[in-house]
Amino acid sequence: MTGTVPTSPLRARAEIDLGALRGNVRALRARLAPGAALMAVVKSDAYGHGALPCARAALDAGAAWLGTATPHEALALRAAGVTAPILCWLWTPGDPWRAGIEAGLDMSVSGMWALREVTEAAREAGRPARIQLKADTGLGRNGCQPADWPELVAAARAAEVAGTVRVTGLWSHFACADEPGHSSIDAQLDLFHELVAYAEKAGIEPEVRHIANSAAALTLPDSHFDLVRTGIALYGISPGPELGTSRELGLRPVMTLAASVALVKRVPEGHGVSYGHRYHTPAETTLGLIPLGYADGIPRHASGRGPVLVGGAVRRVAGRVAMDQFVVDLGAGGAGGDAEVVQEGAPAVLFGPGDDGEPTAADWAEAADTITYEIVTRIGARVPRVYVNGPDDRREAGAGR
Ligand SMILES: *Cc1c(COP(=O)(O)O)cnc(C)c1O
Questions:
Q1: Where exactly are the structural domains of the chain?
Q2: What pTM did the predictor assign?
Q3: Which of 46, 214, 288, 337 is most buried per CB count within 10 Å?
């Protein structure tokens, strides 16, 4: 980081509706199997929504745990005064195990190298580390291979007996939970049951066992165990097209990305637009300049395709998305060409909940041939997050816990 990025909400802003986030937490909790608690996954700055305000809103609405990828993300939450249980799962050799122990973090261990580093740090700190053993039940990413599980479990149990660790959790992660009926789902669940039983037989008594992400939270009650780790659904976004839309799932998108039109101008027919002239005006028309570009996370891949609500109609990006700006043809697209006259300063909404005809993050994911996760997570630091319906600003009806 090179310091704070200067931003202006007048140019562009990501409005973050914390009331919607609290509502999503409540909607998700209502769907959990009996006995299961909710972990709010706030890694990667809460998928671009802002880790601290989102963590606080989620806890306020009944989330019991927080989850981050890196220890640094978890330590930042602790430094800001968050006292709830936090699990962080992406450790690299040399990471701050001792600081994690002193901050009371739950730290995921997927291999012997991590167990060695954490027990060493616990000896230095003079207090046991809270660790959660992660099994790879089939994702093929992080987690301990089943063949290596007995060695890791035995070593972790020995460290427990020696007083350097407390194994607080046993956990895993799905590969294809967003594809209901995929054969890997049951295979992973069966293996998870087996690996948990093995560890418990070896004497480990976890506080929590967990494998479900948002997709599994929404579709697979058998996978809920003691805890579900929801990320994308918390932010009101469907985990994937096969699971239905946000609305169908009873979720409300939390982020609205909007900008102010920076310039409006008449151009003749046949005018090339933006780098490479990938768009030529089909007739004399009006162009609108939108001051957001790929540096702000607007996918260059959505050149010629990304949808924007401006002047009462949804337009498509005309030509290429540049680093800081792109253009829409205000005379083309939309509903029959009789849209409102657009002036500089007019709002341009790239995505939001969809209430007022604006596109959604799912529409952008489709336009850029990617997933919604990438659309919201990549919104850059130059775009200020503007929080509404926060704890001091409860505008939604019937706000409360
Ligand atoms: C990101 C992540 C989650 C949350 O996934 P969603 O699909 O956003 O709910 C859960 N667990 C782990 C290990 C993750 O990395």
A1: 19-235, 255-397
A2: 0.95
A3: 46
